[in-house]
Amino acid sequence: MCEINKYGNRDIILRALKRYKDESILGIFKGYEEQTQEQLISLSRMIDFIKSEENCFQRSNLCGHVTGSSMVVNKDFTKVLMTFHAKLKKWLQLGGHCDGDHLVHNVSLREANEESGSNLLHLLNYFAFPQKYNMNDLENIIPFDLDIHEIPARLAEQAHLHYDIRYLILAEKEDDILISEESLDLQWIPIHEIQNYTNEYSTIRQFKKLNLLIQSL
């Protein structure tokens, strides 16, 4: 009980990250040796950051902050929705800042909605793939992936770290997307063509994990 009070609203994501370690990294993806050690190191750094920074969900934390993003897949599990980011000038998954919201899965869903224009989005429970989470599960959602990466300095903004927590999201439709002002392009990219768009290791890692889930169907 004391531990919960100690970390306040950060406790929900800390518990989710512990389950990510036990049930995902060392659980269903345990045999995926390519990502195990790297994810464990990133996880340890992320937990230390969240525990030490009370304002970890605020972008006003200049050394870094927690962000939420997602792999948005179509109903056939053949494509993923990617954005060509206006500032960073590269293909990325959808996501953004928490702006104080400690429920990071909500952040990933909100950002996916804002950046795609689609309201028909659902968080996927990849432990029971391809089932969707229901409303009673929302405090028990486990991340799909995580990554810590540097955002370069730009104008008045200094270089800083994004402690990015990723989720898997299902889009009910492919044809209701709209390009947001944060994006130069928005495309449904066939899973087998992702390396034509990006060579980002953390993105390729997620596609490999997604492929493992699809192959299990």
Tell me the layout of helices and strands:
Blueprint lengths: L1 H6 L3 H18 L4 H20 L11 E10 L5 E7 L5 E2 L1 E4 L6 H13 L4 E3 L21 E7 L8 E12 L11 E8 L10 H15 L2
Parallel strand pairs: 1-7
Antiparallel strand pairs: 1-2, 1-4, 2-3, 2-8, 5-7, 6-7
Helix pairs in contact: 2-3
Structural write-up:
It comes from Fluviispira sanaruensis. This is NUDIX domain-containing protein. The protein has 217 residues and is an alpha+beta fold. It has one domain (56-215): Alpha-Beta Complex (Nucleoside Triphosphate Pyrophosphohydrolase). The protein is built from five helices and eight strands. The chain has helices spanning 2-7, 11-28, 33-52, 104-116, 201-215, and strands spanning 64-73, 79-85, 91-92, 94-97, 121-123, 145-151, 160-171, 183-190. Strands 1, 2, 3, 4, 5, 6, 7 and 8 form an eight-stranded mixed sheet that branches. β2 (79-85) and β3 form a beta hairpin. α2 (11-28) packs antiparallel against α3 (33-52). The longest helix has 20 residues, at 33-52. The termini are far apart.
Number of helices: 5
What are the segments in which pLDDT stays under 50 over at least 5 consecutive residues?
none
**How many domains, in number, for the residues?**
1
- How far the N terminus sits from the C terminus, by CA atoms, comes to 40 Å
The second-level CATH architecture is Alpha-Beta Complex
Secondary structure class reads alpha+beta
Order of helical and strand elements: HHHEEEEHEEEEH
Mean pLDDT: 93
Count of DSSP strands = 8
Helix content: 25-40%
